[in-house]
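Supplementary Data S3. Sequence and structure tokens for construct A.
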Amino acid sequence: MKVEELRTQFLGKTVRLKSGGPLMTVESVIETEAGLKLDCCWFGSAVSTTMERAPLHPESVELARAPIDNIPNWRGNRRRPAG
């Protein structure tokens, strides 16, 4: 992929490693000797104030999706899956 394609697909979006792990935000697309990488940042844990950062291969991440039943509605109730 080219730099502009990666920026369009990932820049500012929330991703997760395909193998699992924390949610990360893509801050930039960088060129390295090993090829194009996504500069990703995340917090070490749910209660951590330490921000971690790493350049990752675009093929190793996927766009993250929040489960619909875990998003509170305006009343604070959890949504129930349709069905």
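Construct B, processed identically:
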Amino acid sequence: MPRSRQSRYSSEYRLLLERLVALRGDESQTLVAERMGTSQSMLSKLERGVVRMDLSDLLSYLDAIGKDPLEFITDYLHAINWRPTRRKPAAAPRSK
């Protein structure tokens, strides 16, 4: 199945959430949620995968826990052994 079609419960997504929670460490959900500008209950839903985390959420989360997004994403991509798929270039539009 293409990576973009996988469920939010895929092993790769679960690993993403587990790594985020591990990075949060001893900081409370309440404190991190406050820094993110959201509620503790919403943060809990994000961390448990009940609500899918989008890129904006991810960046806000990493900022709230003081982690570098580029470093996190690079480490995560290595952890899941991600490799770009080869795609054919899009066809140029035909001129009339």
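The chain has five helices and no strands. The chain has a mean pLDDT of 90.
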